[in-house]
Amino acid sequence: MIKKISIKDVAKLANVSPTTVSRVINNSDHPVSPETKAAVEKAIKELNFQPNRMAQGLITNRSGIIGIIIHDISDAYFAEIVKGVQEVLFDYDYIVNIYNTYRNVDKELRAVNMLIANRADAVVLTGGTLLDSYYKEKMQQYIEELKSYGSIVIGVTSHPFAIKNIKIGNEYIVKTIYNYLASKGHQKIAYINGPELLSTTQNRFSGYKQALLERKAVINKNLIIKSDFTFMGGRKAALELLDHLGEFTAVIASNDELALGLIWEFKNQGIKVPEDVSVVGIGNNPAAKYSYPPLTTVALPSYQLGVQIGEYIKNSLYSTKVVDDEIEVQVSLIERESVRDLNR
Amino acid sequence: MIKKISIKDVAKLANVSPTTVSRVINNSDHPVSPETKAAVEKAIKELNFQPNRMAQGLITNRSGIIGIIIHDISDAYFAEIVKGVQEVLFDYDYIVNIYNTYRNVDKELRAVNMLIANRADAVVLTGGTLLDSYYKEKMQQYIEELKSYGSIVIGVTSHPFAIKNIKIGNEYIVKTIYNYLASKGHQKIAYINGPELLSTTQNRFSGYKQALLERKAVINKNLIIKSDFTFMGGRKAALELLDHLGEFTAVIASNDELALGLIWEFKNQGIKVPEDVSVVGIGNNPAAKYSYPPLTTVALPSYQLGVQIGEYIKNSLYSTKVVDDEIEVQVSLIERESVRDLNR
DNA sequence: GAACTCATGGAAAACCTTTTCCATAAAGAG
DNA sequence: CTCTTTATGGAAAAGGTTTTCCATGAGTTC
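^ inputs. structure came back:
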């Protein structure tokens, strides 16, 4: 019932050996006469033969599988990375498979484990490290495992274990925003933090603190809200901020969902953005431009990042040339209408 | 340099045969004494052994790979489907890999081809058929191929070739919207169409026409705008509609991006939503609730759909029980604030 | 105590490729 | 004319599993 056409069938039909068939499939260096080649190709077409990747992989030690671990594919940031990676690698016959882990330690670990079993050629870890200590240790071990099988491992935002690390300057982003707001005359700036156990959160927050330090501003603890990167989190944060209305003129949300929630709830409470309070997010979420007012935010060039990761993988796996270990990624502030210029 | 631990190494360490190791790995029916089992497990742990999936697949005829072909992972509708599928199948050690084809014929075909080479256990075709005739013929052939290798093929919105078809009642959705608007007193309703070569587009539009027919309304060609499922497309459509302002009180956009663009541009032109014109979308895009006003739309239960697809695949592949061939998916209208009630 | 059955384990073939090594014949070199 | 290359092709091993079939010994049954 199940069709099984193998290289042998092709060989038989073309009246050659499997070896020869393999040679034409792989465009081998070993010479094959034009006639035999044509015969083989004809047979392949006739039988609709597709070499079995598993058998190939078994012997070449290449699975053709690229794993990419993300928190949530619904998040445009991750979706764009995946697209970039996939776009590039598609042309080289790699299949990219994704794991939504929702920042869950067990899922993350299990995903890597599956990737080991599948002998993935490369795995990309996005979304920042989870700072759980059990996770860290275990992940460390798995990644060693992965590497020892010959996989290349890439960490997107400073995964400490990865072979290659791509840094999006999270501190830099927040400092940029802070300075931008300062240039618009804002002195007192609130900050909405992300989920605690995430390196991204820590790095962004550290950028906020650095900015305060550089401008010799005083820290007002009332203006630092713990939250969780969600729209609802943003709404709650807005409510918390309500008690301290006079104490700030602007707020930096550590991602766009948060910022969108903030704007929503402020509007809901009769507080006007940007007239009463300015809001800036991070991420350039697609929804950011549909909001009212359109959200000023920082674009993480995630698609481009994905493409670069893809290129890096391709080069490492496909060619022998030494690949540049630096990936530069440009971050840009997108001015829309959620910030008021206090200088005017 | 590259680590290669095989079942043989485990066997040697545990002082048993590879056969026995295989038996404990796979929890075989063939009895293994508790002591040997323990010994094997100890050896596995000690060597950090992970059975090679490719070797396994070669012999079991199962790759453990699920392919899912989508137009664009950045589109929340697809992202949610993928999540659902992945969520379910993750627990059964399947890896799901995605292909963004951007509705491109060649990419779509190439993707299926790669899935054949990888001997995918199942492939899911989302996003509606492309109505290109070359595509149709070629795809037909590929799918036959796929099936003949034992893959199961699932089409989400009436892919004519798939083994199983899951229909989201696209006609029904639009009729529901139409009737909803009618119940709010709207008589003249414009319609923004999607990209032409897509079955989804055709089905939704057919729903619009049916609704008109049922209500014995006259078709006003000025109110039917060709567009393309994008935000910019929605903006352009709004502009086109500007010339016929008196002729309609509401507009149905065939997806949310379109609706969001519509609202944006109407606002831009000083036309108030919903005071001057009501807008309804389809899809419940995450951005829909951040818009101003929040968009009334129809939720396609895409995550749930994904879960069901996942379940179906799991059941077909994993168990022997016959699986129900009907998948019911519930569609619901989400009332927000973009529709005005003319009865009051 | 003979004949079965059952629990446990191993040997070897099979899955489908690629790769290494060898074979043959024709062509070129001297 | 012999020796060496070169072009072309095949045989067989290897890769890491699972599976089929067989072997052994102990326990049961009469």
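The mean pLDDT of chain B is 90. The domain at 63-168+302-329 of chain B is CATH 3.40.50.2300 (Rossmann fold).
thumbs up if we can close this ticket
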